[in-house]
Amino acid sequence: MLRIALQKSGRLSDASLKLIKECGISFTNGTGKLKTVADNFPAEFLFLRDDDIPRYVADGVADVGIVGENVVVEDRSAVTIAQKLGFSKCRLSIAIPRGESYQGIESLQGRHIATSYPNILGDFLKKNNIKATIHEISGSVEIAPSIGLADAICDIVSTGSTLMSNGLQEVEVVFHSQAVLIQTPTLSNEKQKLLQKLLFRIEAVQNARNNKYILLNAPNEVIPKITEILPGMKSPTILPLAMEGWSSLHSVIQEDQFWEIIEQLKAAGAEGILVVPIEKMIY
Ligand code: ATP
Ligand code: ZN
Residues in domain Histidine biosynthesis HisG C-terminal (predicted)? Predict the structure, then answer.
């Protein structure tokens, strides 16, 4: 049985559970339970504080876990990142009081910086030849400058609204983070196989999220042009319409090219374009 550690409650929990569900793995979780077994996959889930997940996985108490890359890198535990998961994206940034002058990273020379991420910040400062004093604090980092504890902070930012409301401005991005699936360095062959099975499903879910199914109608003479715009997984499906001289084309497009492709299709003579989500996608 593969033991999977998930955050009990917090910014990773909902998206982690959604991913597990989309991988077709279900379980009944009595609220507040710390452990539960999946109904239809040889897996057991442990619900933990996110900060504890790298250590549980490094120690082999859990085989894999879902956690923020920021926590994994800061923790320096002996785990490997098996897959980046693309959710809970945020950045670790340095911020200073708003209105204070900043002439680039040299302005941090000799300053005091409060953070819960002393390792990541320390590496960043070293790489940039900045000598600053790091004050490690575990929470409410954003109030450190206003109470005179530090000149600057280094903390997680997603929209910047917390910085804003504390009178701070972001001046350097130190690290980009997202949720990752980590694994213990030594997995038995049997567990390795289960992990591969899980990774295969995660990949199918991620591919589906990044792609859309597209259907459109077009006069037969523009089919070659449209086939060029819509390569799809192999090539588009072409079906004749009841109306003489017209066809329906079906294909797959990438989410990030969506608007550009739609414009090209319209310009080429496509009509009645439908775009629908894909649930799972295997190449
Ligand atoms: P726990 O109670 O489990 O210790 P926590 O309060 O330490 O939780 P959360 O705030 O739930 O942690 O954040 C968990 C992870 O989610 C962070 O380590 C980071 O990777 C990511 N994260 C943090 N803030 C944001 C945000 N504003 N937007 C998106 N992701 C975020
Ligand atoms: Zn935490």
Answer: 208-280
Give residue 193 CA to ligand 1 midpoint distance, Å: 30
Pair (197, 167) in one structural domain: no
Output the CA 280–ligand 1 centroid distance in Å.
Answer: 28
Q: Which residue has the tokens 């559970």?
A: 17
Cβ of 85 below 6 Å from ligand 1: no
Q: Measured from the CA of 51, which atom of ligand 1 is nearest?
A: 4
114: Cβ below 6 Å to ligand 1? no
Q: Is 178 in the pocket of ligand 1 (CB under 6 A)?
A: no
* Ligand 1 nearest atom to the CA of residue 9, by list position: 3
Q: pLDDT in tens for each of the 283 residues of the chain?
A: 999 999 999 999 999 999 999 999 999 876 678 999 999 999 999 999 999 999 999 999 999 999 999 999 999 989 999 999 999 999 999 999 999 999 999 999 999 999 999 999 999 999 999 999 999 999 899 999 999 999 999 999 988 899 999 999 999 999 999 999 999 999 999 999 999 999 999 999 999 999 999 999 999 999 999 999 987 777 899 999 999 999 999 999 998 888 999 999 999 999 999 999 999 999 8
Other Cβ atoms less than 10 A from the Cβ of 196: the count is 11
Exposed, middle or buried by CB within 10 Å (0-12, 13-18, 19+), for 115?
Answer: buried
Distance 15 CA to ligand 2 centre (A): 16
Query: Which of ligand 1's atoms lies nearest the C-alpha of 69?
Result: 20
What is the extent of the structural domain holding 51?
Answer: 2-88+178-208
CA dihedral 275, 279, 282, 283 (to 10 degrees): 10
Task: Tell me if 81 is assigned to some domain.
Answer: yes
Ligand nearest to the CA of 74: 1
* Residue 21 counted as domain residue: yes
Q: What is the DSSP string of 162-204?
A: HHHHTTEEEEEEEEEE-EEEEE-S---HHHHHHHHHHHHHHHH
| Ligand 1 pocket check for 209: Cβ under 6 Å | no
